[in-house]
Predict the structure.
Amino acid sequence: MINYQVVIPLFFYLLLVYLMAIYANRILSKSDNFLEEYFIGSRDMGGFVLAMTLVATYASASSFVGGPGVAYKMGLGWVLLAMIQVPAAWLSLGVLGKKYAIIARRVRAVTINDILHARYQNRWVVILGSLSLVLFFIAAMVAQFVGGARLFEGITGLSYNTGLILFAATVIIYTTIGGFRAVALTDAVQGVVMMIGTTALLAGVVVAGGGIPAIMAKLSAIDPALITPAGPDHFLSKPFILSFWVLVCFGVIGIPHTAVRCFGYKDSRAMHRAIVMGTFILGFLMLGMHLCGALGRAIIPELAVGDMIMPALTLKVLPPFFAGIFLAGPLAAIMSTIDSQLILASATIVKDIYLNYIRPEANTQRSSTGGKNPLHRLSFYTTTIIGLIVFAASFNPPDLIVWLNLFAFGGLQAAFLWPLVLGLYWKRANAAGAMAAMVTGVASYMILAVFVKRVAGMHVIVPTLLITLGVFILASLLTPKPDASIIRLFWGDGQEREHGQ
Amino acid sequence: MEETEITGTDKRFIQANKEALWATALALCYFAWWYLSAYIPGDVPVEAYTYIFGFPTWFFLSCIVGFVLFSILAALMVTTVFKDISLASSDKGVEKT
């Protein structure tokens, strides 16, 4: 059965998202640098939009559907795990930092592969980077689509496939026509919706449960382990939970769709403001959403699939009309992660592969005929096609989406973290090191994740990043130093030396 | 710092490095807070738990106080350590301290 009271507010929300895409498309059509506008919004983000788009990008289906779903089963210990992400905003903006933003402007970077291209000047680094980015993004986006469609199904009563079609169509269309600016703007609105949704849902849960002490007593009666840091059966052992510090906190520096935002801001002040706001908002959302899942166990104790807890809670504790508005919160989180991955995957194919290696001359032949640049069309098509591939793959969904999503998440870190961070801060880092690190990183992560699962109780991202770091350093030291021009670009003042070249 | 061995070092990078170190240090401090406040009061039998506002003490300290405290510390770090510098591609000088 279809729940119209829920569907109608959702419909208006989706409409708002489309309107923003149209607005962004207006700006795009007036821009004189199509690529920089479409793929990075002309590096024009202010503090608020930057904070929101960063947070919205972190807060994916795993934090809004999968995460609370696991918190439902694991109790407060999983909330503790989720709170590891609190430093993510100041860490990724601070560590990549202003140096990265300055260099992005020097080399006119649109994607993070542009930075790698400038730093390592090696086509294989760029090609490997692009390939792993596109592949892992597709995997991650499928997980997000599945999460979104499941949520749709749970709340509206529409079938999974209908939910998927409505949901996917919206994301693909607004990302395609509006580009990065539409993505960042909708992320900002989605961030606000998430904040409101989280607050309302948490309040609803606490009231429905009869206050915190009563809920804790109920949880403790179901299983005392639900209110311990270790969780039922000590599932959240210390080595396991500690390795999440690497996976969801320090490692996020290397996540491409986060990293690309770290040079998309307007000025230092925007970055400062984003750190302050982003940290607060991210912490608030992580705490609120996961706490809802954990406390929800006291309200609806008998759910078979943990993933259904958020929709079930929303319907149970909020009046239907509001449920529709607040469902938009988690849905927004999912959309805002997909859109950022979609636009970056498209940028990677168009900018890093096509323009670098297939037709380098394409960018220069702009509007000589007065008509539309073929590059514009290519960019739109690429975005659409990637969206459709992901959409098609989402019809046959796997069960616990949090793990699927984390698989891609870790793989991206394995590929990009060290090439980015060492590229910025270690002069000796060179192309051989970066290439070796990317190959071993992705390969060892996949092998460990599939065959070993946990190493000494830790998530496999920890050994993977250690191996990768070792390989990077070793390979760099065994091969020649990077060229002096690269050092000047990344450490010098960015001006050509008089006697130089 | 080895930056000096290159002529024409962009002074803004020195400030940027400093900010990156601070960001890392603050994350490590958060880790220490998170770990100690969660596991010292949390790693005892449930019967021995104490509660603050209904939450187990470990949870209240690590997840709620920790989050509020470090949001404030992050804001302090940004206002005291971080500098408003130009991001333009060439060095127009660091703003006076």
User: Anything to note?
Assistant: Residues 11-42 of chain B form the longest helix (32 residues). The two ends of chain B are 20 Å apart (CA to CA). Chain B has a mean pLDDT of 86.
